[in-house]
Every structure is written in structure tokens, then in C-alpha cells.
Amino acid sequence: MSLKVPSIDRLAHELSKLPGIGAKTAQRLALGIIKKNEREVESLREALQDVKEKIRECDNCFCYTENPKECDFCLDPKRLDSPILCVVKSPTDIAKIESAGVFKGCYHVLHGCIAPLDGVGPEDLTLTELIKRVATLSKKGELIEVVVALDADMEGDTTSLYIKEILSDYEVSVTRLAHGVPMGSYIDFVDQRTLGRALENRVKL
Amino acid sequence: MSLKVPSIDRLAHELSKLPGIGAKTAQRLALGIIKKNEREVESLREALQDVKEKIRECDNCFCYTENPKECDFCLDPKRLDSPILCVVKSPTDIAKIESAGVFKGCYHVLHGCIAPLDGVGPEDLTLTELIKRVATLSKKGELIEVVVALDADMEGDTTSLYIKEILSDYEVSVTRLAHGVPMGSYIDFVDQRTLGRALENRVKL
């Protein structure tokens, strides 16, 4: 489904390379962009250039930042005082965890999970850097706990267990997120495995 | 939910202005763009500039084109021979109709429908130009029928009836798309009004 106008097709093709954008959505976006005025399209083009020029990974935790070396999380003295380090798959997860407003420590971004079927091994993640950080911090007595906050799927579980293994030589406790009934949900909607876990990990009222 | 990195937030904000893109999708797209290499992002930026520089509306039918005056549909001698003109709301609808492969005539893009609640009146559409085209073509005896292919909602129906009215002085028959049971669908899934129309407009086997 195309109007056969080359520049529209090209834009739709470029947009369809973005995550979660299929051919039909790309076509709709391209036609939406045509309706925008020149200033609006220029704004979008500038924002694209800007993000490409300014964004880099933090030297310490590998989250995205505009700072020359370390990100704002790693520079925050309050967070540096926290004895807990939170390991996540991607910077998006940090944004999500921050929106919960419960965790106030520093992060470590793996930029993926171990997924042998997709050809992603431990060496493709920032695990060596994680070990170095934990070694340094636990030596100084500044780190007590590493929370592994990964997805509750096979890749997430594998990676969590791998991290537990590689950190076993250091004096830190490795924890993971609790599994259970989502807040606001109904018992009837929860799958058996989740309900099983929720029962096993029941909490005193 | 944001990482509080200004250039990422700005890109997400620009992306959220596109049709059908909410704040969360925009954030996901922005983070997806960061993962692209520079050449890929430059490709997207070029495609955006290209579409803005090259695309204009056809002088005749108001479809999008890169041609200096008339679009490929209006320049196609086979289509010019067709005695049927198809009126659509937007260029997207042309792409959709073309994909059906049944209609081989010329189009006329209204760029909207009459929608008093949204402040869109007949004067905001390309209706004056439609009347001129129909007047010229019907005079020459080159046009017999105008198919109004608009959405089956209130705005579409209102606009269809309005077009029937303003073309009543010309010797053309004004038709609209058939309503009925969608192909591959089941009687049980079709709403009452559609089923009523399908019964009224039943066709001999």
C-alpha cells in the first residue's frame, strides 16, 4: 500500500526501521509528517542530530548521559552513599524504576541479557565492569547488596543466576525483584506460576 | 517516565507530536534511535528533509506528488480516458484504493471532510476545485460518474450528501461505496445497521 511517490516511500522505509514501527504505521507517520510545517520538521531533524551528537554511555554505569564522563546518577553524592547497587537491562528500565520512587541508589546497565539463541553471551554485556565495580566498592565496605532487576523471562532469569555466580566471591548479598500478584490485579487474572510464587513468598500482615 | 537527559527528552517530545505516537512510544523510539549508528540516523534526517522539499500537492487532484505540476495519476493517459472520477478524503485513501486494484480512473483529494464540531466547513476542502473539474469534464462529455469514496461515519456521510447537492447541476451520476458485510467476516460479527444495509442492497446470484 503506497502512493508510489519516491520521497514518501523512502521516509516510510526509514521510519519502519524504528523499533515497533511496521510498514503501515510508517506510511501513516510519513503522511503525517508531510502535513507538518517546515519549522516542525526541522525541529525533529535537529532533535535527531542532537541526540546522536550529545548522548554517550556513562563511564561508570553505562546509562545514557550528556555529561563528558559520568552520568547524573553516578555524580549524585546521596546515591553514592547508598549501599545498594541496582543492575538493569537497559536505560529504559532505570526510567521505569525511578518513576516508582522507591530506590535511591546507583545503577549498572547491562545493555542486554544473556540470550544464547540470539547469540548474546556474557562477554557482550557489561559484566566485567560490574565485577570491577562490585570488587572496588565491597572492598571499601561501601556496598552491601546488589539488586538484579531483570525481566521475569528465561533470559532475565539466566542472567540473574549468572550474576549471582560471578559475584559469589565478594561480600555482597545478591537479590532479585519480588514476583507476585500485580497491584490492582485480581487473583483470577494471575497465571498459575505467579500465584505459586506469590504463595511461597507470602508476607506477614 | 524519563531519564532526565535533555536531548533524549527533546527528541521524545518531537516524536510525540506525530500522529498516533504517545509519550511512552515516543520515549521508546528515542531510545531506539540512540542505538542506531550515525549513518542510519543521517538517512532518516535526509528522508525528512527530502519529503519536505520535494512533496507538493497536484494542481489538479491535490494528491501528493514530486512532479512540478500534475501527479502521475493525472498524467496517465489511460486514467484520463476513464469516465469515472473518485473523490477521497486523503492521499492515504488513494493508496488503499489502488491496492484493491479495481479502480483505474482519476482521483480528487478533499483533504478532509465537513466536520462542524471540529470547525471544518465546505470552504476548507477542495470542493470549489472539484466543481470546476466536473464542470469542464462533463461539458466535454468525458465524465459520466463521480464515486464518493469517503468513510462510513457522520462526517463522511454529510460530505457525500453535500457533494451530491453541489454536483446536481451537472450531467454526472454521483455514487458512493457499497455498504455491506466485509469479505471473510461472519453475520454474527456484523452490526445491525450494516446488516440492514446489506439486506436492502442484496445482489442477485
3D structure, described in words:
The structure is a homodimer of 205-residue chains. With 205 residues, chain A is of the alpha/beta class. Chain A has 2 domains: 6-54, RecR Domain 1 (Helicase, Ruva Protein, domain 3, Orthogonal Bundle); 57-176, Dna Topoisomerase Vi A Subunit, Chain: A, domain 2. The first copy, chain A, is 46% helix and 10% strand. Chain A has a 4-stranded parallel beta sheet with strand order 4-3-5-6. A two-stranded antiparallel ribbon of chain A has the order 1-2. In chain A, α1 (6-15) packs across α2. At the A-B interface, α1, α2, α3, β2 and α6 of A face α1, α2, α3, β2 and α6 of B.
Quick structural overview:
With 205 residues, chain A is α/β, with parallel strands linked by helices.
